[in-house]
Amino acid sequence: MEKTSVKAVYQQILNRLQSAVGAEEASPQAYWLLEGLFGKKRMDVIMDAPLQLVPEAKEQLEDVLRRLEKGEPIQYVLGEAPFYGRSFKVNRAVLIPRPETEELVQLICGQYGSKQDLKLLDIGTGSGCIATTLALELPGPKVYAIDVSADALLLAEENARRLGAEAEFIECNILEDYPTTLPSLDIIVSNPPYVMRKEASLMKANVLDWEPAVALFVEDEDPLLFYRCIACLARKQLKKGGRLYFEINESCGKEVVEMLEKQGFSDIAIHQDLQGKPRMVEARWRE
Fold first, then answer.
1. Mapping DSSP to helix (H, G, I), strand (E, B) and coil, where does residue 141 land?
2. For the domain 80-284, what is the CATH code?
3. Tens digits of per-residue pLDDT, 99-142?
4. pLDDT tens-digit map of 202-231
5. Total Cβ atoms within 10 A of residue 250
6. CATH of 2-68, one of 3.40.50, 3.30.1660, 1.10.8, 3.30.160
7. How far from chain centre, in Å, is Cα 2?
8. Residue 78: CB partners within 8 Å, gap ≥ 6?
């Protein structure tokens, strides 16, 4: 057993990560690793608290650092990612939850936070972060979630169960099929694939090389493919006055709005994210 200190291990991690992820990301990731692997927090570093490393812990740390140096996202390395104040399990079958998607959830909660007995559907649920969070944040909703990936659904179900959320998860490819047993819905929400193939060169390697392409990309020739398909489904499944919510590619806001107008939706609005980018669209199905 090696006697050391939390500060010394933090510095060791920091030195290894700076060349791999850059100086800006190295420090927060070092703190994240300390907490994830050893249960130590920033104050333990400041206080230079003692730390005893057994050989197994040293091997685990070395394995984690090697994976990070190869570019693997820290969320996959640790197997978890924060979202809306909770920790969701993640693996390479699902996208890593992102802050912009938290803003989409907040938009819905802000509009429906006091309404009882809502029925809602999350299309392309991935880790289940949207479906599970809405199930926990809204008062007693009936939540359904679909995804094309069986592996993603297994993880989404695990996240919902672990966090105490009730939701029904369904395997489905919405481009080919749609569950016929769902009730009329108050809300449909989706963060579908929206990155065009031509934009791949602009993406960071830790996204491009590790996260599932099926959840990221849409072909350049038809960037609205999923939006259009989901809007068609929403016309049949939403109650009158029900709402449709999308996370969108910042370059496609105008086109998404025009498509929704042609489909018969009203009260269409684009919302900016905290970076000032057009990131969310909401629309109401006609009364």
1. coil
2. 3.40.50.150
3. 999 999 999 999 998 899 999 999 999 999 999 999 999 999 99
4. 888 888 889 999 999 999 999 999 999 999
5. 15
6. 1.10.8
7. 38
8. 32, 33, 36, 64
